[in-house]
Amino acid sequence: MEIYIVHKKLTVGPHKGKRCFTLSRGPRRNIASGNLLEGIENATTLSFADGEMIFRSLVEVVTEKVSQGHSVDLGPLGTIKPTIKATGVENRKDCNAKTITNRGVQFIARTELNERLKNMSLRVVNSKVRNKQ
Q1: Degrees, nearest 5: CA angle 57-58-64
Q2: Is residue 58 included in any domain, yes or no?
Q3: Interval 98-121: pLDDT, tens
Q4: Domain count of the chain?
């Protein structure tokens, strides 16, 4: 992975509020699902269309289960689970679905995936410092 030296105001830690040098990930390119499907096609006996059907089916099944409140184990990738955020209220009778401010999902990577990624190669690629706000 390419990383860059940046000069920015830190928001946490012992140098909070100070402008310091730190490292940041490089520009990120969005990898389209088609690229993943081509990789699956090249690595397996599945066709591109088979992989696409599996992706779409996986999304449907995961969406159904997560919307029912279940966590879904995605095997070697990790787990996806539903999340909510709600505003606190003083009276129990005021605590209802209207106090929910956000609904979403959380992905928790499997330990093995995290371990494999800890060994990724890193390279500082820039000689110029980027200023970040």
Answers
A1: 90
A2: yes
A3: 999 999 999 999 999 989 888 888
A4: 1
Half-sphere exposure (CA, 13 Å, Cβ side) for 6? Answer: 14
Query: Which residues of the chain are modeled with pLDDT < 50?
Result: none
Which pLDDT score is estimated for 29?
80
For 81, how many CA atoms within 13 A lie in the half-sphere containing its CB? 9
Taking the C-alpha atoms of residue 68 and residue 73, their distance in angstroms, rounded to an integer, is 14
- Residue 52's contacts (CB-CB under 8 Å, 6 or more residues apart) are 33, 37
Distance CA 111, CA 117 (A): 10
**Considering the domain boundaries, does residue 41 fall inside one?**
yes
Alpha-carbon span 6 to 23, nearest angstrom: 6
In terms of residue numbers, what domain contains 64?
Answer: 31-70
Cβ-contact 108, 82 below 8 angstroms: no
Question: What's the chain's average pLDDT?
Answer: 90
Residue 129: predicted pLDDT: 63
